[in-house]
Amino acid sequence: MTDYEIFGATLRSDIAFSELPTGLGAPTWHLKAVEFAPTLEDPALLGRERVQEGVEVSLFESEGTLRLVFDDTGIFDISPDGSDMSWAAPAGPARLDLVRKDVFGRVLALALHQGGRTVLHGSAVELDGAAIGFIAPKRHGKSTTVSALVGAGGRLLADDLIAVTAPPAPTVLPGHPVVHLWSDSVEQVAGEDLPFVGDSRGGKLQSEWSSGTRLCTEVTPLSALYVLAPVSAESSAEPRRERLDPTVAALSLVGHSKIGGLLGSTHQIDVLNRACALADEVPVYRLEVPRELAGLPNLVRELLAWRELDGAAGTAP
User: I need a surface site. Which of 30, 202, 230, 239 has the fewest CB within 10 A?
Assistant: First the structure.
């Protein structure tokens, strides 16, 4: 087994993750490859999601243990406290690139949830020692916005999955150091140190910054969350933000949970309670942005200006 650093902790794993730095501390998580998945006592189906065309994942629970069953990559079990995970390969040959993708996605998201974290579907950037997160459904510009901010001097904290520690001092845990973009966004943000290759699932392109200065590996205080709301360029030529009241903000966070569609009612209560506590501590904004890539430089200028203005006022950006 090898130790890797991710989400501010150490993952000891039978599966190799060459893109991750080597972990140095005592392991927080263990991921073991097993020949067969153990039998669960009366497993209850919590939810099911479509991964891609022809591939689904189902989530079961038995005595606190969560089991993810993927049509293509096999079975993952997560212990009640999230610290122990196991993987049983499918009957046929397994593509390890897809296995790794599932680990970085729903598997670790559930392990983080079991460990008390809030897990959001979004991307985050570090600016001047503070974390700013962007949450939204697919194709709303989360990764594009964060990548553009990295190009403007920020550092990538997380893409696709934002893991947030509990209040009263919520922080963002540094995630998988890879960014995924649709091909039409690549030319807007790609530089010489950001080469892209084809993604193994989902049609996006993926990249790692060759410069370590573009990556944030520290646990970072969360200062603001933005709910991206693209609008037509005709209706609004300028980005606009509106702070949401805590109740609306909490509901928005629940709606953008990374794993909310899989979890059953008992876990959804946990998700809601954590969202309410987070919305009481961190400002959540609705951010209207023109639905055109040509407006990206203007969006970056506005976000940086808001950051400077709010920082001067002693409030979160």
Answer: 202
pLDDT digits (tens, 9 = 90+) for 269-310: 999 999 999 999 999 999 998 877 778 889 999 999 988 877
Domain 119-313 has CATH 3.40.50: yes
Q: Where in the chain is the domain with CATH 3.40.50?
A: 119-313
pTM, to two decimals: 0.89
